[in-house]
Write a structure and sequence with these properties.
alpha+beta, 7 helices, single chain, 238 residues, outer membrane lipoprotein receptor (LolB), chain A
Length: 238
């Protein structure tokens, strides 16, 4: 049935209002929406690489080295340096293969049999591993109020968010007091290119208090072009 008169005019006016207001609604998207969209976009990418650096005070007991990683085709590769030693890990689903102390390869199950040595640390690290896309998404949820300043999105972390980043369990109970922290994100053309966290607090582990001041920066690159070559020895174990 053809509409005439006032009804047609009302529909035309209503449609025009929607066209006019849609850009205004889109423009109202805030900093948290921008960062969330960028993290979701990264999660949907077929591949990317990253480089992670950790800065701690000079008198800290541990000084983590840099970490480089790649994810592509359902496989994630991580190369990390701890106490001057390099370790490599390949992960696919719930399976993981990593370097052993003799320079060979071992599965997660084989590494977990090392109750006191590096295998125990590596097993815990793999089980708690999150890709940068997942890390960034969790960070956004732990931000108090993201604001855009000088091209970067930044916010203080909630106390619970800072506490999660400070917690570290190694077979005992880690308690965190006075947690605080900040998160900063850099986005270029809708792409998340870098994010940084800075956390402080006192971590009590097995009765010992440790003051923590840690800055972690993750730089993302080669989005959509990253490739991973899995060695034959690793593929057999995966």
């Amino acid at each position: 049935m053809q509409m005439k008169g006032p009804i047609m005019k009302m529909n035309v006016l209503f449609g025009s209002a929607i066209v006019f207001l849609t850009p205004l609604f889109a423009a109202q998207a805030g900093p948290a929406d921008d960062v969330t969209a960028a993290t979701q976009k990264l999660s949907g990418e077929s591949s990317y690489s990253w480089h992670t650096t950790t800065i701690v005070p000079a008198d800290s007991q541990y000084h983590p080295g840099p970490t480089d990683g790649k994810t592509a085709g359902g496989v994630t590769y991580v190369k990390m340096n701890f106490r001057g030693n390099d370790s490599e890990i390949y992960m696919k689903g719930t399976n993981a293969v990593m370097t052993d102390p003799d320079g060979g390869w071992q599965t997660l199950a084989e590494a977990s049999q090392d109750d006191q040595g590096p295998g125990r640390f590596m097993t815990m690290m793999v089980r708690n591993f999150r890709t940068p896309a997942k890390q960034a998404a969790d960070l956004v949820a732990d931000c108090k109020d993201l604001t855009l300043t000088n091209g970067a999105y930044s916010s203080e972390l909630t106390p619970d968010g800072a506490k999660k980043m400070l917690s570290f369990r190694r077979g005992g109970q880690a308690n965190v007091s006075n947690p605080s922290g900040t998160a900063t994100f850099w986005i270029t053309n809708g792409e998340l290119t870098k994010f940084e966290t800075h956390v402080k607090g006192t971590v009590t582990f097995n009765g010992n208090d440790n003051d923590v001041d840690r800055d972690i920066t993750v730089e993302i690159k080669d989005v959509g072009t990253t490739k991973i070559d899995v060695p034959d020895d690793v593929a057999k174990k995966m």
